[in-house]
Amino acid sequence: MSTDLHCRSCDRTYDASAEEPWRCLCGAPLDYAERSLPGRNTPPVARSIDRNLGLWAFQEFLPEPPLVTLNEGFTPLVDADGWNAQFKLEYLFPSGSYKDRGATLTLSRAAALDVDKVIEDSSGNAGAAIATYAARADIEADIYVPADVKQSKLVAIQRAGARPIRVEGSREDVTDACLDAVEGADGERSEGPQQTGTGWYASHAWNPAFYAGTATMAYEIAAQREWSVPDALVVPLGHGTVLLGAYRGFTALREAGYTDRIPRLLGAQAVGYDPIASELHDDNDVDEDAPESALTEALGNSDRPPETNDLADGIQIRSPAREEQLFEAIERTNGDAIALDSDDVESELDRLHRNGFYVEPTSAVATAALHAYRERGVLSPDADVVVPLTGSGMKTL
User: What would the CATH number be for the domain defined by 99-206?
Assistant: First the structure.
């Protein structure tokens, strides 16, 4: 199949190459011009899938060949009785987070295009994943990170042989510095999408290969449940790589005839970094009869105190790259997004640790949101729910 890129907004198409733009000339994100789908048929029996291939067992759904892989994928799906849900243990990937799903596809694309060097900006997990798979591919990597990045994430990048570049300022400042390098700007960065600088932009927020990778979570969940679909997924929401990946994956499964529906997609953001939740929940959306708690006060309404959740550093994103696509996915699945504060996340993180799930705070945002959604009646107590635990607690050291 073609791996050319296409813009949904203005209908431009770009040929696949090491010089391909990181976004469209119109400013919109790019996606694959053709979708990878098997012929519409009955799914293979789950036990017949070769799990030794990891997520690449679903090659018919994937737009890239497995050129750069560590046989990642098929993370455990376990019952979490204390939460009346199933947890997908995504923190058991080689680099310690679900970002390896996107990294293996992104670096496979880079290898197919004969890219010499990749550049990424990240709060830590995506950078560690891109660095890990760049090392596997023997491709040079520069990873732009916040100056106060967690030491464990910085070490993971360095030990993989990548070059971390620490940037003072906000998370947005990190992205701007990275794009200056990508576009070869001297001084003020150009608004164009070209990649004429020092490397190929392996962005977890913009690169369509990354989302093709995160979609594999949906394929695995369906296969591990004998091709049944849960009622809902509750996921952490920053740039939306989990939520959009799940939407695309479950959509592809339905279109291929493997499943018959798409679960509700319920996002969990951090207070102060919650553009999706704030847009969805204005004053008119607040349920006056809802229980009074920190969880229900953190839904993006105007009465919320002007504070930020600085504990969940993995989702501190104020301007998601694919915001329009996120709203579309939430609307089409009857989904939602809410925001939680640090206190809610800290207590939930302690509960997860005491139950044997050693995860980082961003994972606790999702399980805390599960409680909030049930508290508000968005989810019934007996709803069939899957929650991905996205990052290892080792990343907090």
Answer: 3.40.50.1100
